[in-house]
């Protein structure tokens, strides 16, 4: 595969040579997978799995150290009244909050993910983006969520996007030689077509992304089932061809347990059980956790819970 | 010329300002007092009840925060809208309760008047239920009534429309939002009322109408942790059932209005409004 990324023309030829997406078929498949009925013990399992896959996120201009610490406490111990609830996978914050989050999480095993590269717009010069990434890594981030340059991608400068992802990937390397995991955000709501989503998925995976992620959560259209299914299929094909496993993270707009379980069904049907762990599938979410906790309380107590019984973030 | 094909009406629930079918897809047959089929009504499941509570909770902030004057206007508007559809309600009530047209008309008129009567109370109940308390110190001490929150209402079984209005209006006029389970045998006037509410400036979710087996939906509503009060008017006669519901309701300290014999055509008094209010008392130092 090295030759397809040798120059701009080869990369373009490869990406445009990917089969076109059957939009109607994709949407129908995503809708069909959303109709599975997951009940009782399977539901309980799915809820716990979903909780353990959450990247609990706060990406607001108004974030304070206190808010980040509160979120970390929640991530480690989502339901203080029930110690059997699993921890979330990671806490996702802006780079300047990484040190605070790292300190609050301590040795709990919950990762710190940081957005970087001029999130969410990605409109900055490459050296600024790389400095942003190095800052977050130096502060102790375990995972970096970068945004691609949509402007470059949409105007067809694929190699530029490719080189940028590679450069950020190099910036993720720590002094001791280990590296932070790199998640690449596509902002699929701005990519216009399903064909573009398939192309950018391959582009990012070829550039060395550890995870591919749908959206920033900052635009109108965020993660949707069809787009996520398409990315899962790209990951499946990439794995089949090159033997490299890549993770997927839908983010933004997933608020209910029902939605989360639909995504888990999609993962299982498209990629199989191997991907059904927090190492290979994540939810970028904030309000989803409360809904999962309320569903969990309903399953254990038999009565419907309410927002008074979960923390307000 | 051939006879026109009759267009039947599909009765649907009224939840969150929309008209969904039951999540379960079930319906049951509704008959008139003589057993003749009238229509199919949705047979709500506990999940419909859950969705209705979510809708009611969502609507609570806006409705309880609206001025009393505005709430009064909206309740009056409901009466206006009902007046325009009087004939429909008269025939539905006549069918449901086996009444003559004139008796049914009297029921509907009384129900419309009751909306107007309760509308007037919106900016007056605070003076009756609250006020300045004399205290031994240099303080103003003021008590004000505030709405309880989401109120689950089991509507009376026998009085399908006047009884229904008599339990919904007092709960919402003070700023509560309501999930009402219509009369099991005669739910059609309640489901039609949903259509009136949807066109009366009443924000979606303030009143949510469910139809089905009262016994099936009442349990989950009584046990629901996000319901703040429950009116058991529709639990007819069976003391054991009422006790079970009260026990479930006690779990999160719901305000509970026990079933009692009520003459719905009599002057209702302020009792049902006062039942779903919380009193907030504020101490404020007097100025120098």
Description:
The complex is a heterodimer of chains A (313) and B (288). Chain A has an eight-stranded parallel beta sheet. Chain A has one domain: TIM Barrel (Alpha-Beta Barrel). Chain A is 47% helix and 11% strand. Chain A has helices spanning 8-17, 23-33, 40-52, 65-76, 98-105, 126-138, 150-154, 158-171, 194-207, 225-242, 257-270, 288-301, and strands at residues 54-57, 90-93, 111-116, 143-147, 181-185, 211-213, 247-249, 283-285. The mean pLDDT of chain B is 95. Helix content of chain B is 43%, strand content 18%. Chain B has ten helices and ten strands. Chain B has one domain: 3-Layer(aba) Sandwich (Aldehyde Dehydrogenase, Chain A, domain 1). Chain B is an alpha/beta fold and 288 residues long. The longest helix of chain B is centred in the middle third of the chain and has 21 residues, at 101-121. The A-B interface holds A 302-309 and B 50, 53, 57, 220, 223-227, 248, 251.
Attribute tags:
heterodimer, A: alpha/beta, TIM Barrel, 12 helices, 8 strands, 11% strand, B: 288 residues, alpha/beta, Aldehyde Dehydrogenase, Chain A, domain 1, 3-stranded antiparallel beta sheet, 10 strands, globular
């Amino acid at each position: 595969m090295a030759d397809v990324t040798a120059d701009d023309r080869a990369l373009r030829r490869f990406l445009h040579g990917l089969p076109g997406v059957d939009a109607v078929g994709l949407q129908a498949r995503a809708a069909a997978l959303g109709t599975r009925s997951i009940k009782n013990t399977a539901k309980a399992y799915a809820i716990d799995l979903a909780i353990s896959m959450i990247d609990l996120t706060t990406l607001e201009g108004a974030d304070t150290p206190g808010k980040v610490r509160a979120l970390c406490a929640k991530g480690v111990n989502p339901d203080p009244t029930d110690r059997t609830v699993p921890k979330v996978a990671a806490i996702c914050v802006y780079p300047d909050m990484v040190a605070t989050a790292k300190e609050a999480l301590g040795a709990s095993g919950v990762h710190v993910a940081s957005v970087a590269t001029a999130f969410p717009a990605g409109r900055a010069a490459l050296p600024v983006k790389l400095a942003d990434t190095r800052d977050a890594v130096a502060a102790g981030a375990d995972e970096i969520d970068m945004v691609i340059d949509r402007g470059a991608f949409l105007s067809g400068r694929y190699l530029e996007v490719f080189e940028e992802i590679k450069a950020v990937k190099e910036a993720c390397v720590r002094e001791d030689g280990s590296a932070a995991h790199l998640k690449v955000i596509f902002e699929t709501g701005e990519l216009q077509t399903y064909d573009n989503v398939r192309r950018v998925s391959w582009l990012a995976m070829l550039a060395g992304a550890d995870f591919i992620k749908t959206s920033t959560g900052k635009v109108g259209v965020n993660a949707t089932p069809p787009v996520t299914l398409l990315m899962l299929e790209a990951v499946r094909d990439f794995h089949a061809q090159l033997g490299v496993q890549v993770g997927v993270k839908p983010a933004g707009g997933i608020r209910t347990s029902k939605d989360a379980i639909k995504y888990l069904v999609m993962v299982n049907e498209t990629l199989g059980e191997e991907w059904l762990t927090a190492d290979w599938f994540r939810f970028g979410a904030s309000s989803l956790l409360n809904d999962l906790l309320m569903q969990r309380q309903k399953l254990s107590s038999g009565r419907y819970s309410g927002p008074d019984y979960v923390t307000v973030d | 010329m051939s006879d026109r094909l009759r267009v039947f009406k599909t009765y649907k629930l009224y939840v969150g300002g929309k008209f969904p079918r039951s999540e379960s897809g079930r319906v049951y047959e509704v008959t008139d007092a003589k057993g003749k089929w009238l229509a199919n009504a949705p047979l709500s499941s506990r999940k419909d009840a859950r969705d209705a509570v979510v809708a009611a909770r969502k609507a609570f902030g806006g409705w309880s925060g609206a001025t009393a004057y505005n709430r009064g206007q909206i309740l009056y508007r409901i009466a206006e809208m009902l007046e325009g559809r009087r004939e429909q309600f008269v025939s539905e009530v006549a069918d449901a309760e086996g009444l003559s047209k004139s008796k049914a008309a009297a029921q509907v008129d009384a129900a419309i008047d009751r909306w107007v009567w309760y509308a007037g109370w919106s900016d007056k109940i605070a003076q009756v239920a609250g006020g300045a308390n004399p205290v031994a110190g240099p303080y103003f001490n003021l008590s004000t009534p505030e709405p309880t929150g989401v109120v689950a209402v089991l509507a009376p079984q026998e009085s399908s429309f006047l009884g229904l209005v008599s339990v919904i209006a007092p709960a919402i006029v003070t700023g509560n939002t309501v999930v009402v389970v219509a009369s099991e045998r005669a739910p059609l006037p309640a489901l039609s009322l949903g259509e009136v509410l949807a066109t009366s400036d009443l924000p979606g979710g303030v009143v949510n109408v469910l139809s089905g087996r009262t016994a099936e939906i009442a349990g989950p509503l009584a046990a629901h942790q996000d319901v703040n009060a429950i009116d058991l008017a529709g639990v007819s006669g069976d003391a054991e059932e009422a006790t079970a519901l009260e026990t479930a309701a006690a779990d999160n300290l719901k305000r509970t209005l026990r079933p009692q014999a009520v003459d719905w055509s009599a002057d209702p008094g302020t009792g049902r409004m006062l039942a779903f209010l919380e009193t907030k008392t504020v101490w404020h130092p007097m100025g120098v």
